[in-house]
Structures are given as structure tokens and as C-alpha cells.
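Quick one, C-alpha cells below:
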């Protein structure tokens, strides 16, 4: 299986640069995973495809304003820091640009001295371990100085930070949003619950590896990034009871999918717990828990296109994407949605 098998041609103008004014007014393509049949809707129609007794699995991670712009102490040269993962009380694994001159001992000043960072180590893939120095509460300083770490294909400035958060975002730790969830409003979620659909909240902190291109020709040789997840006893019970009672488990986004598939045993029972996952789902994978998926339209040759192809079949997915291009759907993080039924 080659990476190039998952390529499709996408005109740049179809990459959504800004979120819609109304989250739930995006378009919704429904793809039948058995027949490949496609139909066109608006996102609020999703409720028509959910049945009483089903379970919707959402990822309640919260994106932190992880992008910091500072200057190198002594020279004043511009340096950009991207927080990836907390490694200690005041230490983080980061991505530094430009990285060549960011050697151990380099100090970076942010906000005129409100926050200072020192590079203390260089680790795997050139990432830097950074120790921060500040007075006060780190999260408050970060909220004041940091920017949302939008994906590289979004070039417009985000005016409202909350638009890169789901309405149910709760636990801070992500460097990217679980974007399939951006389509939901609190009103729509209430209607879904009122219809008799259970909602199970899981947490997977999304890393920037989600945007990392697959650089190998052979898909199976790709090294998947590792992400931290947590499933409560309550969420595991909702999911397991749904399966036991004959309902469907419908994941909102690939991150929710990867979480429950990672936490399930060979019998499809989801276990509560706190762990890391590097699961890579591509065609040939047998889903243990997930039945259906709500997702966005993903980058060509990405691990996410491979995941949806594992569920609906590569030919069906690529044909649906071809139709989406023809119909001028909006692509990627702020784009339109797909329901794989």
C-alpha cells in the first residue's frame, strides 16, 4: 500500500481560511460506507442520522494558545516557540523556529520580560526542552501572550480564539483542535440528547504530529506520533452499554476514534484509564468499537485520509472527495463535514 494511493487533487481556494459565523451551518456530506453513495446536507441534519440508543463519542480536549513569539536575549532576533507537551512543572517540550541557533543555554524573552524561556535540552526530531521563568500563573501569562497554533495551511489571523475550540472543550493540553467537533453548538447537542442519544466524553490531547506528512512510500513504514488520552469509568460504561444494547458508537472526529480503539480489548470492550497511544489506522484495520464517524475533509496522503479509508474503503473515500471538490465543499480544519454511515 503506497502513500500515493491516497492522493487527490485539491484546489487551494477550497481550503477554508476562516470559520463560519454559525458553527452548525456548514455543509454535511453523507457517505454510505457499504455502497459509496453520497448525499448532500447541512450539518444540523446530522440529528436525522442518529437514532435513540446510539452513542456519540466526543473529545473534550482544549487547545492552549501554544504559539509564542519572542526575541533572543542579546541579539533581539525573532524566535517562535510552539508548546507541544508539558514535561515538568515549568518545563515543556517545544518546537523552535528558527531552530539552528536555538542551542542549549539560549534565552528567549516574551512580552517585554513578562515571560522568559531557557533552552535546557535538544531531544528527538530536534525539539527543544524549555524551562520558563515568570511571576504569577503560567496559564494566565500564556493566555495573554500566546496565539492559537493554527495549522500551517491557514494563513488568515483568527479574530476569536474560541472559534478554534469546541463548545465542550474542557481539559487543556492540545496543540490542535479536534476539528470535527467545531460544527456542534450547545443547542444541537441538547437536541441530540433529547432524542435519546447518549454522549460519552473522552480526552485525547492532539499533537502537531496530526499535521505531519507521511514521508515514506510504504504506508506501513510510517512512524506514528504518540498522544495522551484519558477515558473515565462513566464514558467507558456508556460506550460498552451502547454496544451491548445494540446501539451504534459514533465518533466525532478521528481523535475520538483513535482513543476508543486504543482503549478497547480484542473483544471490543473499552477500558477506562490514562495512557498514551500511537495507533495508526489504515485500510485492513478491523474496528473493534466504532461503527460510524463524523469527520472533516483531510489532507491528501495524510494518516487521517488513511483512517477514513479504513472505515469506508479507499475507492469510496476518494470518489467522495472528488465529488466534494466538484461541489466546492470547504476543506480541512474550518471546513465542511462528512458523516460515514
Amino acid at each position: 500500500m503506497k502513500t500515493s494511493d491516497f492522493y487527490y487533487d485539491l484546489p487551494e481556494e477550497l481550503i477554508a481560511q476562516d470559520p463560519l459565523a454559525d458553527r452548525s451551518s456548514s455543509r454535511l456530506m453523507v457517505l454510505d460506507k457499504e455502497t459509496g453513495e453520497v448525499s448532500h446536507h447541512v450539518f444540523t441534519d446530522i440529528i436525522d442520522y442518529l437514532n435513540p440508543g446510539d452513542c456519540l463519542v466526543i473529545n473534550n480536549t482544549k487547545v492552549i494558545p501554544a504559539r509564542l513569539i519572542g526575541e533572543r536575549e542579546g541579539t533581539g532576533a525573532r524566535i517562535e516557540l510552539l508548546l507541544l507537551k508539558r514535561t515538568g512543572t515549568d518545563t515543556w517540550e517545544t518546537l523552535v523556529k528558527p531552530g539552528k541557533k536555538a542551542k542549549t543555554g539560549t534565552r528567549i524573552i516574551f512580552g517585554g520580560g513578562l515571560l522568559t524561556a531557557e533552552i535546557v535540552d535538544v531531544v528527538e526530531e530536534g525539539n527543544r526542552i524549555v524551562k520558563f521563568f515568570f511571576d504569577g500563573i503560567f496559564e494566565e501569562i500564556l493566555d495573554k501572550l500566546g496565539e492559537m497554533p493554527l495549522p500551517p495551511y491557514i494563513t488568515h489571523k483568527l479574530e476569536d480564539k474560541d472559534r478554534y475550540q469546541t463548545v465542550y472543550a474542557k481539559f487543556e493540553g492540545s496543540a490542535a483542535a479536534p476539528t470535527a467537533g467545531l460544527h456542534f453548538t450547545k443547542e444541537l447537542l441538547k437536541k441530540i440528547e433529547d432524542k435519546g442519544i447518549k454522549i460519552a466524553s473522552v480526552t485525547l490531547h492532539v499533537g502537531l504530529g496530526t499535521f505531519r506528512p507521511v514521508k515514506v512510500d510504504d504506508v506501513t513504514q510510517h512512524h506514528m506520533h504518540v498522544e495522551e488520552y484519558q477515558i473515565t469509568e462513566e464514558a467507558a460504561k456508556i460506550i460498552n452499554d451502547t454496544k451491548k444494547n445494540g446501539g451504534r458508537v459514533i465518533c466525532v472526529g478521528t481523535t475520538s476514534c483513535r482513543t476508543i480503539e486504543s482503549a478497547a480489548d480484542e473483544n471490543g470492550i473499552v477500558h477506562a484509564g490514562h495512557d498514551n497511544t500511537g495507533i495508526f489506522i489504515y485500510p485492513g484495520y478491523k474496528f473493534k468499537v466504532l461503527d460510524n464517524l463524523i469527520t472533516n475533509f483531510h489532507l491528501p496522503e495524510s494518516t487521517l485520509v488513511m483512517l477514513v479509508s479504513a472505515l469506508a474503503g479507499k475507492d469510496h473515500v476518494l470518489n467522495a472527495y472528488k465529488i466534494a471538490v466538484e461541489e466546492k465543499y470547504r476543506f480541512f480544519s474550518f471546513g465542511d463535514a462528512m458523516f460515514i454511515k
